[in-house]
Write a structure and sequence with these properties.
five-stranded mixed beta barrel; disordered N terminus; 32% helix; single chain
């Protein structure tokens, strides 16, 4: 019998220590291949640098990449703890399409039942967005904003052809602005949701080897 090919790796990238802690607290059982949870540091420059460096490792050269963590919701009616599945990520340099988003929506509904899942464009910023900037970004069609997802996915596809996706948990929204993550109910709610999402990521990762029907 010929040897089976090694399972493809998955790189899950987040920016903050609290995000990495939430993901690790959620466990890694059930992954279809090796999983690396990378803390990139805050901001697009740090994300680009970290992802480019890690994907240069031969062990991760072909990894699927999923950006995750917290985000700011832009649309009225969003609440802390809601989920955002990006159909694409945007920044001034480029737009990066995401892969098999419909499966992520389905699996997130299964592993975090009762949570609203929003889909649409996720835009990037180099600073925390507040007030009128939210309305300006919403007018572009984006539904949420964070500082790392767009840079993470753009760096990933520049390093080589691979599946990419972004899933974020809303930590604040137009009617629920937070001053500091983790000090109010909204931040705690978002943390608990982020702690629960890894099984959905694993199903997305496994699906990448299956033919589309």
């Amino acid at each position: 019998m010929s040897p089976q090919p090694a399972p493809s790796p998955l790189l899950v990238a987040c920016a903050l220590g609290i995000e990495q802690f939430a993901l690790r607290a959620g466990g890694r059982g059930g992954a279809g291949g090796p999983v690396t949870v990378l803390r990139t540091g805050m901001g697009p420059v740090a994300a680009e640098r970290s992802v480019t460096r890690v994907l240069a490792d031969p062990a991760l050269r072909d990894a699927a990449v999923l950006a995750t963590g917290f985000c700011a919701g832009l649309a009225p009616g969003m609440h802390p703890g809601d989920l955002v599945v990006a159909e694409e990520t945007r920044d001034p340099r480029s737009t990066t399409p995401c892969v098999r988003t419909e499966l992520l929506v389905k699996e997130l509904g299964r592993v975090v039942p009762g949570r609203t899942v929003h889909t649409g464009p996720l835009t990037g910023s180099d600073h925390v967005v507040r007030g009128h900037e939210r309305s300006e970004l919403l007018a572009t069609g984006a539904i949420a904003v964070d500082m790392e997802s767009a840079a993470t996915l753009l760096s990933a596809v520049r390093a080589g052809e691979r599946p990419v996706a972004a899933v974020r948990v809303v930590v604040d929204a137009p009617e629920h602005e937070l001053v500091r993550i983790g000090t109010v109910r909204g931040g705690i709610s978002a943390f608990r949701v982020l702690r629960s999402v890894l099984p959905a990521f694993f199903e997305w990762h496994r699906s990448l080897l299956l033919p589309r029907r």
